[in-house]
Task: structure prediction
Amino acid sequence: MTKKTPKKESNYTAKDIYVLEGLEPVRKRPGMYIGSTGPDGLHHLIWEVADNSLDEAMGGYAKNITVILLPQSRIEITDDGRGIPVEKHPQTKKSTLETVMTTLHAGGKFGGEAYKVSGGLHGVGVSVVCALSKWMKAEVCRDGSKYAQEYVRGKPQGAVKKIGPCRQTGTTVSFEPDPEIFKEIKFDIKKILNHLRQQAYLTQGVRINVIDRTLTGQIFNYTFYFEGGVKSYVKYLVRGQELSHQTIFYAVGEKDGIAVDTAFQYTNEIEGYEEGFANNIHTGEGGTHITGFRAGLTRSLNDYAKKNNYLKGEGENSLAGEDVREGLTAVVSVKIREPQFEGQTKAKLGNPEAKVAVETVVSDGLADFLERNPSDARAIIEKCLLVAKARKAAKAARQTVLRKGALDGLALPGKLADCSSRNPEESELYIVEGESAGGSSRQARDRHFQAILPLRGKILNVEKARLDKMLDSKEIKSLIIALGTAIADDFDLTKLRYHRIIIMTDADVDGSHIRTLLLTLFYRHFKQMVEQGHIYIAQPPLYRIQAGKRIDYAYTDADKEGVLKSMAKEVKIAPSIQRYKGLGEMNPDQLWETTMNPQNRVLLQVTVEDAKEADRIFDILMGDEVLPRKKFIQAHAKSVKNLDI
Result:
């Protein structure tokens, strides 16, 4: 902690802490407060404590935040802010520090002038962490002294004590998550770094240090400090991509007490990417600030295009929202005094006034930007016009596909071996490569709930293909009709005919490529299926090992060694080892027993933890640039056996 002078006067004392209720509900229903007791909820503990330090930084009272990962799953977070007050609280008659740490809804954000804007509700988050920690310690430096108190599962272990002098100010919170609450306590350094890097971009002037001491004998240090704010963040997000224009749009402004900070840049990608934040909290489901950004963007670009004779008339001749968002990478950050979030985990902002504020700032800023940067303006408008033209062509192609399906009585593809069940919840579709594997899997399946769709060869790489070209592919059209959801504007997840879509390819280079092409298709055009957990990857065995009458299957080389050791102990006869080159080499009984029988099979569920990182990996693997793909493969060849998004 270092000494500093606050940017402005502030009386942050016991009277600024408001108490609403106790802590017991947190341990009874932790999911209500941190979302889940899985990995996301576990990491949410760090975010809640760090949010309090970031609130001090946003208020101008802290410059440095340090997060330390310690052995035994302990976390220590320090800031050089004002330090939580320690004097007796007028309502609870206890130390204010104890009140903040052990009382739900006790914090400096419920009233008074302690915080103009904040991310978490100071005291709500930290008290939840205290309740869900096996052990916790708070140390505060203020008024020339250092104070400390320890807690076990939300209960103080003695009073707040003065433990010595302290020349600086600030707060340190250390905690160890409770194994009674969290089944697995394993922190992900990459997840932590991504989150805190994001926070550093959003809080100009704050330095965030991350120190990893979990590995014996090794210490890793990371520091994030960005003067450029969200403009720097956009530059980071578009790294390695081909840019449509050179100048990053950046606008900052305030309306009705809401501070708006936003930036964007267009790339030559098909996918767009928007990140929204309210008081530094990532609103993964968007909200009114994102709605306002989109409205301001669409209106301003249309106004400029019409004014400069790129567009004439209204209606069909106007740029639609989807036209101006293709290839867009944007960050929208608002600071708002009374944020209204939907849900405890704050995934969506609900304040209607945020829409007006963002739309105004974006409209005014973008009109000025386009006039001052005519070459960038021309590049942006021409890109949007090209997208609009492609959209109209795709709409015609899509309607042709749907109309053909309707005329055929929604006839399913002839190559599809459908299941007899019409209950999507129990039905599953295996997508297999080639007729040989298709024939074997058709014989192996349980016809009641398992459908088979064989694909001929490698499907189109959709990473760089627009919808109209994509719908010319017979294989992709067959898959769309089999799924039943339609695509693009007509997509309807409720019409999905199978709740498990299983990609089953050979364990060779061609099989891996086909699997990657299919994952690219699903991620780019059926993303809700991925997000809802409908996409799986089958894991056929690599080896069939037999010794006498005993037959075992091995799914990896490590499995093979384990089977061989086991057989050596139990069976005297030397085993024969068959290496499967493809699914077609397995007879139907073997394929059923090892890969399709729900009692025995191994399925990998495809999930998206970090959407932007998934975007980047798909760009590398499936894009036009050879060198980045070569570097990625060289870097990951030894460690990656299966493609996980």
Q: What stands out?
A: The longest strand covers residues 133-142. Residues 374-407 form the longest helix (34 residues). Residues 12 and 114 are 6 Å apart (CA to CA). The chain is about 35% helix and 20% strand.
